[in-house]
Give the backbone structure.
Amino acid sequence: MQTKRAMILVSNDPESIRLGANELIQNLSEALGAYDLQDEVEITTLSNIGTSNILPLVVVYPEATVYGPVKPADARFLVEEHLYKGRVATDLIAPPKQLSGNIGWLRAHKGYNPAEQRIVLERAGHIDPENIEEFIAENGYQALGKALSEMTPEQVIETIEKSGLQGRGGAGFPTGRKWKFVRMAKGEKKYIICNADESEPGTFKDRIVLEGDPHTILEAMAIAGYALGADEGYIYIRGEYGLAYRRLQQAIEQAEEYGFLGDNIFEKGFNFHIHLHTGAGAYVCGEETALIESIEGKRGEPRARPPYPVTHGLWNRPTLVNNVETLANIPAIVRNGAEWYRSFGTPSSPGTKVYTIMGNVNFSGVIEVPMGITLREVINIYAKGMKPGSILRMAQTGGSSGSIIPASLQDTPMDFESFRKAGVSLGSGALLICDQNTCIVDLVKVLLQFFRFESCGKCTPCRVGTQRTYEIVDRISQGQGRLEDLDVLVSLAQEMERASNCGLGQTAGVPVRDMLKHFRTEVEAHIRLGSCPTGVCAMTPETELV
Amino acid sequence: MTAPTIERDVSLLVQEAIEKHGAHRDALIPILSEVNHALGYIPAEAFQEVHKQLQTEDVSVSKGQLFGLASFYDMLSTKPRGRHVIKFCENAPCHVVGGKAVWDALCDSLNLKNGETTPDKKWTLVTTSCLGLCSVGPVVLIDDDLYGNVVPGQIDKILARYE
């Protein structure tokens, strides 16, 4: 392999492409040609995981100089200054303020937040996701090799169990135990499914992994296949994630070519094949039994449980369904051991959690931090504080099916146990930060609109309950509410929770419950005074929600 | 397009989709997605064709079951749509950063309500659930083009890009 003097990394996430990243790559390549540098400098792509307002981002190694935003027209100047004349193109350098902290590949450089610990996002944004060799160079497929050559399937499961890893899809079920159930289930044929149907509003952590480090999911699935005795896997990816789909497709081809997937992997007599399956737009398919129905070519309506997928899953065979983020932890745990993993996070919730931050804060994006940090820390350190003029009023954790918490709870440690005690859900890790201009009634109305739209309609409590709660809250937002409505809301929320068939209906009442628990005065003001304290609700019957 | 052309196209389209995705039960949604992608929606003939062409032991689905599939999934449409489909994210993360005003601007500019198509069949306007691009909200998706950090004042300029 010829040695290169320098490397140019260009971000090519959807937003960068929209802003001309592809044209920029083309222009850079032409400019290198013009200065006869094409043999000395390589151009590669990186999946941006940092901030969104300096895209497209260009990083030039070995100096790790960060430029952004770089327009296609800037390509020639950049090449001339930095690579031909050998000095920093100061005009294009990225503003340091927006760079501090959250960009993975800056870990060796200043500005990297010390408390951020990357396990799941270890490689995302750091390697070229379309090149398997970069993955291999960063310990890729090493864990699979270790599992196949040094460990028995039981030892792999034991390692996962000891690590204390809990499912990162929202429910927090111990992963090792789930694996054990599938291992013990009777049946020759078993399946491994990766749940990549990430549709919880405000959640895009899995997309970052799939777009930035697709091979890690393939490696984890193959390890699971070995441990559980399965030779076939499915990745169910939501239809809207086109780029992630293409990256995975390419990754599977590359892995098969290199012998990490397919027959007789590492010549150990282990076979594993992965199919890629796209959804077609249905939130409920993130529920594991609905997802299985959808793969089987049916309407994605959740099944009655028990039996659970661990014994009766895809085509009625024992099936493991794990979320993307859960799986992304597996190779690192197998490589480094359970003890290592337990050194992060809290004793009851080991490891890290990937959060997506958005709302009225200065930085929106993805972070990976140890379990147990508080919301106040997230806002002040990682989100760079509230936007000027904004004061924290409430936050929504875990997407639509998560919880709405008032500012007074911002010091609760974010781990499964502490949140459970506080009656809050950690959910998918979405953190929507809302300021004083957010009206609770308006926000809950939007959440209920989501649930009534996404309810699959199979069971009555959810189908009717989501519709009725929406109508009542809509009426309150129009100044037509009655005080007895609040009692009806409470009982509807309770009944949906108790009687619904799946998680969608069981959590659809949570926003209403939290609204009345923490913000009852404000709701009553809508009813008693006929006015909205924040001035958001139009308070007229004509208002129609989007 | 005349009616006979559609019929022939649909038959061929379905045949190609089955060849690409396989004649298995788990290929049904990919096959319907393929048709939807090519035509913008799934016409009644397509259900007929899939039903007719997929009569294997492993798979046998009625037209009704196929329609039930298409009506369940948001990305599949059983009605014709405009040449360009505008999808607007209506979920909370986009809402709290000013989504409602963008939606109003879209409705006003096109004189459409949710789910409607313009008389000249150019635009269809629909709301959608979260697209996973929350750090750049409010988000509007036109066909496959993504627009993030949208403000109401940009709408006319964005729409003018489309023929």
